[in-house]
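Session log. Operator J.P. requested a structure for one protein chain; no other inputs attached. Running the standard single-chain path with token output.
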Amino acid sequence: MKLLDKLKRGDDVIKKEMIAMLLAGGQGSRLGIVTSKMAKPAVAFGGKYRVIDFPLSNCINSGVDTVGVLTQYQPLRLNTHIGIGIPWDLDRNFGGVSILPPYEKSIHSEWYTGTANAVYQNLEYIETYHPDYVLILSGDHIYKMDYEVMLDFHKENDADVTIAVMPVPAEEAKRFGIVITDGHGKIVDFEEKPAKPRSNLASMGIYIFSWPVLREALIRLSSQNGCDFGKHIIPYCHKKGKKLAAYEYNGYWRDVGTLNSYWKANMELIDIIPEFNLYEEYWKIYTKNDSLPPQYISAEATIGRSIIGDGAEIYGAVHNCVISPGVIIGKGSVVRDSIVMKDVQIGGGCVIDRAIIAENTVVGDNVTMGTGGDQPNQYRPDIYNSGLVTIGENSVIPPNIQIGKNTAVSGDTVRADYPNGLLESGGVLIKAGGEE
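Structure written below.
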């Protein structure tokens, strides 16, 4: 039985049993030039989708039909994609999807300064629906989860706060918020990114709060600078003796917050037996679909284990790639182990290895990407690594250019920008209009 609206007969107030607040305002700085002009949840994924499609689809598949999407950083692409929520059946007269950016108030106007602060600034929106429970979600993870099952767990345990958790390798635990349980689902302690973790159960950034508990915590901590769920709200509830429960999840879940994790998650989709299945009938992932012609594969083209989007034209060779709609790959070109986003044009005679090429980029003839050694990036080795070539959206790569590994290129570049026709491994070339 799906979640239903409740009607309180005494005063004819329509209630939603549970609404979702979807945090989608993050910059995603670890994705470098890929998110220089869009929020991380708006980044393309899987040759068809955008990252935010996954939590939105989880909501409607779980019967959660009221979702507030909190936006802030570069929201235009995200707002355009979501629209009024038609693809997810979230265009409702009461409920549905609402875009919630920061707005000017009569006093104390401010940007969202933390995850919990963003929700606090939208208390009025939440109270419109008189919910019993509020589901807090992040807009930048790839997974499938039935939130109704999690809500049932919350009720059965008579919890005030339920945190979705999953086991992670012990050596990675210090990167997460870690919960310590009594072995029966009750959380006895909570540590935010501890140096020496006492558990390997990591918070997934998915919470269900009983609304009175969340409301009281948000108001009490409203003056806290940068108020955050993991750093402030959860510890506050624990200190106040609220009952915290851990809902253990053992399915597929990926944080695509780095270029390497984003590349790997896309490549996992084309495994012979993919761990994350986009083709399941019972749990569909919905998205905004453009009216595009079918893909075209020429007689001389070869394709191996790849996703090819609608409207793509393939005249060369594609192996182990995720190719988005509207992409053109020229005759004689070979593209391997790469993510090519919407409306990219790749000329003839190119060789491209382990690249992430963002939307509306034009690559000239006889360009080579992923050549040379594996030198670390000279500008941001923490971002541009793993041997990847990263090309920002709306970029132009002139013909007869070689680009090495661990590189980043953004903007309308010309031959003179490449000494001897080469951007060496570890190099960065960012022209005006392509800044991070």
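Operator note: The radius of gyration is 23 Å.
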